[in-house]
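note to self: dont lose this again. the chain is below, predicted strucutre after it. 223 aa total, dont forget to put it in the shared folder this time
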Amino acid sequence: MHKPSFPVAPGETACIALEGPVGPLEVLIDLPKADVPVQPIVAIICHPLSTEGGTLHNKVVTMTATTLRELGIATVRFNFRSVGGSAGEFDHGVGEQEDLKAVTAWVRQQRPDDRLWLAGFSFGAFVSLKAAAELQPEALISIAPPAGRWDFGGITPPARWLVIQGEQDEIVDPQAVYQWLDTLDAPHELVRMPDTSHFFHRKLIDLRGALTHGVKHWLGTAA
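---
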């Protein structure tokens, strides 16, 4: 089977400049941990709001990547336009969807036999949800999706959809998230994390456990 490798070895991080819709996009690639069985899956992870300091180095994004790599999944993190080494200006989620599509096209070119997962935190959850209908990921992870703050109309999540929400989120109203989910016909698994703020302060290990428990039954079986 044709399966080119990413430019990185296990235990190392590759940083590349990928040509995006408005210029270079800063991309980080990590292969699974060297001591775990490798899954034929690549997860692309989207960061929180660019105008509020969100980057691919955000601790929730980083913990998500680490957790998935421990499960044998290769991860790709990238900076949306206007952030870090990525060119362009903030585009309120519209252009950011195009950035995600460009990264996804590159991942599928590099690893055509791998299954695609998308993950996003806050604004990144919004972007990945809005792009899911076109990109058709096998699975989607939405952490603190900002329902009530952005227009979630017209989304089409995949059948495998994990939503994680902190019960003490001071930025995204948890009740708005729950009410929004109740309006959808899309199947989903909701994990409510008690005593947990938006940025998962002192709760990153709990987030790791919720992610592991939420997705491990997807491993080894294509949707």
